[in-house]
Amino acid sequence: MLKTALQLFNTYPLPGFYFRVTIGFEVWRFQEVSGLNTEVEVLKYRHGKSKQLGSFKMPGRPSTSDAVLKKGVFKGDTLLFEWFRKNMTEVERQDVTIQLLDEYHIPQIIWVLYSAFPIKIESPTLNSTDSGAAVESVTLTYEELDILNPVTALMR
Question: Which of 14, 49, 107, 114 has the fewest other C-beta atoms within 10 Å?
Answer without folding.
Answer: 49
